[in-house]
Design a protein that fits this description.
The chain has 94 residues and is mostly beta strands. The protein has a domain at 31-88. The protein is 0% helix and 41% strand. Residues 17-85 form the SEC63 domain. It is found in: Endoplasmic reticulum; Membrane.
């Protein structure tokens, strides 16, 4: 994740006039299956100018499957994103 219009400041403060305290920008990475309505992993990440994060999950027993990765802001409306990811499990012995 990289902010394209970032200035040189490393501030993560967000303007939230109805929030009672100072608020820093953060995001939620959520991985799930729409077909089974199952949540596999969730992680909260704090934004910097650049962010690289890892999310781990236990693979379903199927050989091929599609999971959906949601990137949701905890303070910005309209910035949420959704990505469908295709997976294929291959045996290491073959």
């Amino acid at each position: 994740m990289k902010r394209l219009n970032a200035n040189r400041s490393t501030s993560t403060a967000i303007h939230c006039p109805k929030y009672p305290k100072g608020k820093n920008e953060a995001w939620f990475l959520t991985l799930g299956s729409q077909g089974t309505d199952e949540l596999l992993a969730m992680k909260r990440i704090i934004r910097g100018l650049k962010a690289s994060n890892r999310i781990t999950f236990q693979c379903p027993p199927r050989r091929t499957f599609t999971l959906t990765l949601y990137l949701m802001s905890d303070c910005l409306i309209g910035f949420d994103q959704q990505f469908n990811l295709q997976f294929e499990i291959v045996d290491a012995k073959t």
